[in-house]
Amino acid sequence: MINKKVAGVTEALQGVKDNMTFMFGGFGLSGIPENAIAELVKLNVKGLTCVSNNAGVDDFGLGLLLQQKQIKKMISSYVGENDEFERQMLSGELEVELIPQGTLAERARAAQAGFPAFYTPAGYGTEVAEGKETREFNGKMYVLEHAFDADFGFIKAWKGDAAGNLIFKGTARNFNPNMCGAAKITVAEVEELVPVGELDPNEIHIPGIFVQRIFQGAHYEKRIEQRTVRQRS
Amino acid sequence: MLDKNGIAKRIAKEVKDGYYVNLGIGIPTLVANFVREDIEVEFQSENGVLGMGPFPFEGEEDADVINAGKQTITTLPGASFFDSAMSFSMIRGQHVDLTILGAMEVAENGDIANWKIPGKMVKGMGGAMDLVASAENIIVAMMHTNRAGASKLLKTCSLPLTGVGCVKKVVTNLAVIEVTEKGFKLLERAPGVSVDTIKEATEGHLIVEGDIPEMNL
Question: A80 vs B123: CB contact, 8 Å cut-off?
């Protein structure tokens, strides 16, 4: 067993510097690496390029990095839940690249899988395809999109072990597995770090080979963005 | 004329037994409430769930189980969770049978615009561009005209496009329209709505052939 376990978030984020590119798992606030984000706020590294499907809300998730103006550029598919984001974007302080959600997932997966680029039909004929190579396959048009090239990937899983194996829960899985092994260093935080051998190899979603550092998060708020319920009849 | 629930009710009739369906935010979400109970349908949400159920009872919400609108949901027996790349493999790979989404504008050639109004806050396209570029069967659910009364069924879209030549059918508060090579073909009228009213509200080329039946809801 190759040990990926580090003592905590401080050690896990060793080497994080200004002007780096980071990838963050999560959809809305579900499955975001809460502890890594909190540590990045503490470290106050600046000039960051952040790849994340969403940009958090004003006081949680990547919104916390935006508050301190740590982010130079966001690459996302949907960013509408954050007033500070809007202010920085409209004032030109923040550069924003909006890309189709499936393209975001696949650019991460391509980086993980060693593909430099791939063709997707998403965005063909729209401004997303402007300046990009297009090509016809079997009568349909496709756009060439490139793999991400990031310094760190911050992942949140449900359970993990010191070997770096990960299991996700529910829709908190989302982009997390696709971003494992997609950056130079993958940092996984888990709700429960269990002894090696406890996870059934049949049930592991991401093998430890894709993870460089793993730690158990000290605390998870797991905030719900849209609490919707039905009445008991 | 139909309200939003009426539009959803009419679209629900397009949902067939054995379909995997992706519902967008807004009117499309309401479609789930009107699908016949004697057929088997699974709803996919692009954040990574197939077999979505209704909202949870109060006290049973789970931050780890949400839909693409970030709402807390439940799952039904037979449901599955998966990552985003696999979710879009289902979509891009045309394994999803029907996609229902909203739009700001639809053009008579099937172009759709639903993600950006220049000069206003841009929130992003989310999964809409992947969905419209890939799905074989796309139904748009929307009001026939915008708040200012202008037609949303146009010769060409004026807003930035989400996808080109992809919409197959449009269900509005006034009509059911098929997008054909020759333009918008009127299939059905909403209850109490005349063909003339629909013509007036449609800027794009409207094809009217024979008697146009009223929707059977």
Answer: yes
CA A101 – CA B175 distance, rounded (Å):
31
Contacts of A104 in chain B (CB under 8 A): 84
Residue of B nearest to A220 (CA): B63
State the pLDDT confidence band at A1, using cuts at 50, 70 and 90. very high
Cα–Cα distance, B109 to B92 (Å, whole number): 21
Residue of A nearest to B62 (CA): A224
Q: What is the 3-state secondary structure (H, E, C) of chain A?
A: CCCCECCCHHHHCCCCCCCCEEEECCECCECCCHHHHHHHHHHCCCCEEEECCCCCECCECCHHHHHCCCEEEEEECCCCCCHHHHHHHHCCCCEEEECCHHHHHHHHHHHHHCCCEEEECCCCCCHHHCCCCEEEECCEEEEEEECCCEEEEEEEEEEEECCCCEECCHHHCCCHHHHCCCEEEEEEEEEEEECCCCCCHHHCCECHHHCCEEEECCCCCCCCCECCCECCC
Residues of B in contact with A77 (CB under 8 A): 124-127
CA atoms within 13 A on the CB side of A205: 24
What is the number of CB-based contacts under 8 A between chain A and chain B?
181
Choose among A122, A177, A232: nearest Cβ to B129.
A122
A202 burial class (0-12, 13-18, 19+ CB within 10 angstroms)? Answer: exposed
d(CA B109, CA A110): 33
Length of chain B: 217
- A123: contact with B, CB 8 A cutoff: yes
Q: Which chain B residues touch A100 with a CB distance below 8 Å?
A: 125, 127-130
Taking only residues 10 to 29 of chain B, the set having a beta carbon closer than 8 angstroms to any beta carbon of chain A reads none
To test the contact with chain A by mutation, choose from B84, B86, B131 the residue with the greatest count of A C-beta atoms within 10 A, namely: B84
What amino acid is encoded at A90 in this protein? L
Q: Which two tokens stand for residue B164?
A: 């080109």
Chain A touched by B53 (CB under 8 Å): no
Model pLDDT for residues A124-178, shown as the tens digit of each residue: 999 999 999 999 999 999 999 999 999 999 999 999 999 999 999 999 999 999 9
Tens-place pLDDT, residues B48-75: 999 999 999 999 999 999 999 999 999 9
